[in-house]
């Protein structure tokens, strides 16, 4: 399969990937719900967007994910996350930043990517909750990703021959470490979005290692068409769980053929 071939190649080759799923100007919006004491409460909004931009003078894609809890949710738990990434037009990761305010904690993770020969070089930065900073340099013989760059790339994966339980592993970086994350295919389902429409979806789990096992971080339900737009996201957070349901999509690249009539 194309994914496995890409992962087996050397770093300089495998970091390039053909984008078939999105275009500049795509904008997605969501309603956020938190689980509070066994009750699901509408608690804010989220938005995703992709635009053509520039990074260090070269044309690139700029992707962002912003979550904002409302005043009602703030009484229980404050959540303000902003994720940003840049990748080249051939999907090579260039930069990642996550600024997260969760409760009284505020942390920042950053990763800068450079490439030479068969190696990926990372400059990693973490601002801890006490305001101190940690910097480190890491070199990896494979292509390395972060949560945003792997999400953009995964939208162009071809799931035609996937079977339920199919898994792909890949190096994932934050501001502090590089670990091996996992994407697991869970099959197909029909999901109703908050725009009133139902979509035929692919169900995918993004998992990270924790204490010797893989822990599910996010479960994506993406449209079973060439766009692979997330219709629903189930997020497993430190304080509990949250869900996001699609309210609108604009500027998508391909026809939305996954709508269930």
Main beta sheet:
15 strands, antiparallel
Global shape = globular
Helix and strand run: HHEEEHEEEEEHEEEEEEE
Using only CA atoms, what is the Rg?
18 Å
Terminal CA distance: 32 Å
Mean pLDDT: 90
- Percent of residues in helices comes to under 10%
Structural class: mainly beta
Q: Which residue ranges are poorly predicted, with pLDDT under 50 across at least 5 consecutive positions?
A: 1-9
**Secondary structure: number of strands:** 15
Number of helices: 4
* Proportion of beta-strand residues: over 45%
Describe the structure concisely.
The protein is mostly beta strands and 261 residues long. The chain has helices at residues 2-8, 11-14, 71-74, 147-154; strands at residues 26-36, 39-55, 58-69, 79-88, 93-102, 105-116, 119-127, 133-140, 167-173, 178-192, 198-210, 213-223, 230-237, 240-250, 259-260.
Walk me through the topology.
Elements: H1 2-8, H2 11-14, E1 26-36, E2 39-55, E3 58-69, H3 71-74, E4 79-88, E5 93-102, E6 105-116, E7 119-127, E8 133-140, H4 147-154, E9 167-173, E10 178-192, E11 198-210, E12 213-223, E13 230-237, E14 240-250, E15 259-260
Antiparallel strand pairs: 1-2, 1-14, 2-3, 3-4, 4-5, 5-6, 6-7, 7-8, 9-10, 10-11, 11-12, 11-15, 12-13, 13-14
Write up what this structure looks like.
It is a single chain. The chain has 261 residues and is mainly beta. The chain is 9% helix and 60% strand. It has 4 helices and 15 strands. It has a 15-stranded antiparallel sheet that branches. Strand 1 and strand 2 (39-55) form a beta hairpin. The model is unreliable at 1-9 (pLDDT under 50).
């Amino acid at each position: 399969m194309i994914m496995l071939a890409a992962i087996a190649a050397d770093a300089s080759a495998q970091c390039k990937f053909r984008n078939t799923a999105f275009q500049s100007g795509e904008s997605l919006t969501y309603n956020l719900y938190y689980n509070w004491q066994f009750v699901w409460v509408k608690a804010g909004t989220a938005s995703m967007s992709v635009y053509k931009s520039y990074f260090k003078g070269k044309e690139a894609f700029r992707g962002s994910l912003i979550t904002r809890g409302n005043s009602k949710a703030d009484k229980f738990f404050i959540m303000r996350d902003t994720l940003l990434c840049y990748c080249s037009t051939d999907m090579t990761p260039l930069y990642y930043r996550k600024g997260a305010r969760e409760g009284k904690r505020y942390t920042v993770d950053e990763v800068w990517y450079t490439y030479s020969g068969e190696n990926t070089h990372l400059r990693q930065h973490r601002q801890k909750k006490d305001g101190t900073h940690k910097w480190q340099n890491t070199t990896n013989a494979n292509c390395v990703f972060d949560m945003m760059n792997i999400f953009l790339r995964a939208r162009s994966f071809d799931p035609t021959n996937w079977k339920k339980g199919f898994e792909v592993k890949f190096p994932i970086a934050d501001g502090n470490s590089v670990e091996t994350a996992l994407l697991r295919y869970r099959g197909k389902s029909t999901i109703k979005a908050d725009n009133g429409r139902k979509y035929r979806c692919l169900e995918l789990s993004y998992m990270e290692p924790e204490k010797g096992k893989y822990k599910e971080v996010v479960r994506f339900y993406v449209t079973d068409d060439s766009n692979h737009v997330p219709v629903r996201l189930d997020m497993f957070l430190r304080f509990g769980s949250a869900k996001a349901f699609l309210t609108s999509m604009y500027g998508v690249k391909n026809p939305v053929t996954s709508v269930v009539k």
